[in-house]
Structures are given as C-alpha cells and as structure tokens.
Write a structure and sequence with these properties.
alpha+beta; homotrimer; 23% helix; Nuclear Transport Factor 2, Chain: A; seven-stranded mixed β-sheet; 42% strand
Chain lengths: 158, 158, 158
C-alpha cells in the first residue's frame, strides 16, 4: 500500500468497525482485532499521565468476546445505541507490516424517545497489523476519551 | 474505479451533496439523483421494522424539485440552516454500474443568534449508479435517522 | 496529484492540522501555513456579506507565531481543549500549484470535569499551495463559523 492507500485503508477499517458497533453487530467486533490484541478505554488525563489501566481493559480477543457475551446476557446495552462519527486518521506511520495510527472520533448516544446526544469525543491510538494483501487488524487500541465524566454510562464498546 | 477509488468517490459525492444543502443551493440538490430516483427520510425504528413510508418520501427527481419549490415558497427553511458532517462510507459494494453504500452522518442546526446544536444523527443507505467515467448519481437514498423525535422540525432535506 | 490524490491530500492536511491543535502542539500550527499567509475567523453572516475583518485576523506566519506566544503567556488556553472533527473536503479545485478547498468541521470543547460539548461548526475556506512533490501549505484560510455567538470564548485557533 502506498502513501495514499494506507491512510485510506485505515479510514475504511475505522468506518467498518464503527458501523458494526452502531448496527449492534457486536459479535463481529472482536474480529477487527488480532488474537493477542490489547484494547482499553481511558481518559485523556490518565493517558497523558502514562497510566495504562483504563476504565475498560482487555488483553486478548477472547476477553473481547467475553465482554460481548456479558453485554448480551446483561442486556443493558439495549437501552441505548451509539452513532460513531470517525474522522480521517490524523497520523499514519508504517514500519513493515506494523502501522501506527491516530484517529479522532465523536460518539453520539441514542436513547429511546430522545434525540441523539453527544456522548463522548476522543481519539483512537492504534497499532495495526497488515495481514494478507490488504487487510488491517487492530493489535492494540487505546481509546482515549477527551473527558472522563461519562464512565458510569459505558457499556457498549467505543 | 478500483477498491480505493470507489469508496473515495462515494465520500466525494456525499461531501458535495451536503455542501449544496448547507450552502442553501437547494436547486442543485435534485441533480445528485437519477431521474427515477427514490428518496425518503425515516427513523431507525421504522427502518428496522421494514416500514418503507418514512416521514418524507419522493419517488422521482420531479418530486424532489417540487419539494425545493415548496420550500422556497413557504420560506420556512430560512429560519435555520444545517451543517452536515459526513463520515467515510462504512460499506461500499459494487456490482457493475450499481453501488450500494452506507454512510454515517451528523447534522447540526443553526438558528439565528444561537450556537450550532446537534439536530440529528443517522446513516445514508444508498444505491448509486456510476454514470459516465467517474460520476455517481443517487438512485435510491433512504436517510435513516437514529432518533425520531425531530420530525416536526424537518423542512430542509437531509 | 490526480483527481483522487488531491482531495485526499487535502483531507490529510486538515487532519494533521486539527490534531496539532487538539494535542496542544500550538507551536506547530504556524508551520501549516506559507510565510505570507492570511488567516481569519469569521461568522457565516459576515462572510456572506463580504466582510473581511473577522473576529481574529493574521496576515503573516509571524502573526500566527505571535498569537501562539500570546496564548502561552496568557495561559488561558489551558482552561479548555478542543476536539476537531473534520469531514472530507466538499470542494477541491486545482490550478497549477494553487488549490481551492472547502472543508466542513465541528469543534468540541473539553473543560475539566465536564463532558465534551459542541463548541462551533463551520467550514474552512482555503487557498493552498502545493510545495515540493506532495506537501500542501495553507496560503489563505478563512474559518467561517456557522454561528457567531461563541466569540468571547475564542482563544485557541480553530
């Protein structure tokens, strides 16, 4: 992939990832990741301090699948849906089959009988792997949320 | 158009479409469609139930033009403007000259002497036609709004 | 750059520009511009009337640098951060090394201990220069904000 194709491929990955969540196809969500992936959601403040833990933390695809199962059983995710709006990646750096990318997003929350409302803004800090000719998988995604006051509402993955 | 060019061409169509509306060049709006187009605005809930009718419904380019004329005469659209923010298409599938695409959006509403406010989020569910070498026209656009509580405010096309 | 590369290059410029501001790397901000650049922030209403002055007005890279120094000294910018969400450019026209582009955006404001909130929506009206093989610099940027009621809060560049 050349200078134009790679950022574009990243933007297509982000768009497909967001749509899977927003369509409530949560079972497809872990497949965007590599088997030994790392996924966490944290706040800008904690991220800037170098704190790793985050609000949500998964370090394998298995844990992502468990998370989806938990959501399906608890059923709390049905109370609301998300709408992701993902911008173009602001930074994409490739080194062999490894790609670092930063991508801003806004997520809106839709609750029955209410208008859409802004839920959270932030940035995906990603390490991706090019697998096969054209496919990108997420090896590491740190979802850095600009604010940290939404924590208790967090159920569906970002 | 190849794997990269087609989603990119779709994103350029969406951007030009949104800008025409946001610039109040509503007379240019029907020209984004084929002559025998279908356009409707509906809610996520109705769309998920397979209901076709929608809040707004046009099944030819002529009806789109009539809608614009109506807005110009009623003059109510001048009370507010929109700002569309359209993300990259999350799904693009081509079959000959026919293209299916799904594209998320947020629309903000601008009313005189007030700050911009979120109006609606949703997704364009499109069937496009490749006409000529490089041009995409909308044969069918179903605007699926995430929420349905904004209906009465709907005047300008989304 | 061909029909696809140029709008894409513009979108990458916009993404990098926004990220520099949102990461508080304000010292990098003037480097997105040519030496003899023009930068202003204005409202849709004033822009439509052809008024040039704007709320903020800089007509050289030196003035942009002075603005950053002023912000660093005043330190008021630390009270909040921005999150830009920049859409694909809706219009890109090239004439030799000169490029005109229009790009919609939304900016969210993040204040400590508060959720992100919509700050302003608008459009970049740009004149860019292709410098070197692949690099775009901003020769003229008029930031046209959809609303004008946020003026007094404006400190960080948009």
């Amino acid at each position: 992939m050349n200078n134009y194709q790679l950022p574009f491929a990243v933007s297509q990955l982000q768009a497909a990832y967001a749509q899977a969540i927003d369509d409530d196809r949560l079972e497809a969500w872990p497949d965007f990741f590599t088997d030994d992936c790392f996924y966490s959601i944290t706040s800008h403040e904690n991220h800037a301090r170098g704190l790793e833990a985050g609000i949500i933390y998964c370090d394998s695809k298995g844990m992502l699948k468990d998370r989806v199962s938990g959501l399906r059983e608890a059923n709390i995710y049905e109370r609301h849906r998300y709408r992701h709006l993902v911008a173009m990646p602001s930074m994409v750096q490739a080194d062999g089959d490894r790609v670092k990318a930063t991508t801003p997003f806004a997520v809106y929350r839709i609750t029955r009988n209410k208008p859409s409302e802004l839920f959270v803004t932030g940035c995906y800090h990603d390490e991706l792997r090019i697998s096969g000719e054209d496919t990108l998988k997420i090896a590491r995604r740190v979802v850095v949320c600009d604010s940290s006051v939404f924590d208790t509402l967090l159920a569906i993955p970002l």
